[in-house]
Design goal:
The protein is mostly helical. The protein has 6 helices and no strands. The protein has helices spanning about 15-30, 35-50, 55-65, 70-80, 85-90, 100-115. The radius of gyration is 17 Å and the shape is elongated.
């Protein structure tokens, strides 16, 4: 596939991607079209690894972005992985030039636990 130009770019969580892929699947099935191998694999992957609804994951990303040391890319990664321990959360910040305090880690984990429930 040759891409001529990019119209827009947006960071999406795996839950949002799952919702979009399910919509595409429904549209194609309603038209009687066959689902290609790549689409079936992408849908399977999104179903397997999404842990919350698209709405909850976007709310979590929006709450995380409001925190002081949070980049949008990391917020989306946190929403995708939904870490449950401080060590899992620290691995997401391993490449950053700063570390988070225990209170910051706990705040992020509290936000994640609220979104997963």
């Amino acid at each position: 596939m040759i891409v001529k130009n990019i119209l827009s770019e947006e960071l999406l969580t795996i839950s949002e991607v799952r919702e979009m892929l399910n919509q595409i699947m429904d549209d194609r099935l309603n038209k009687g079209e066959e689902l290609r191998y790549e689409l079936r694999k992408a849908i399977n992957h999104a179903e397997m690894f999404s842990r919350m609804s698209a709405q909850r994951s976007r709310e979590l990303v929006n709450k995380l972005i409001q925190l002081e040391k949070m980049k949008p890319e990391i917020a989306v990664r946190i929403a995708d992985i939904a870490p449950l321990t401080r060590d899992e959360l620290r691995t997401l910040y391993a490449k950053e030039r700063y570390t988070l305090s225990e209170s910051e880690l706990d705040l992020i984990l509290d936000l994640v636990s609220e979104a997963v429930e």
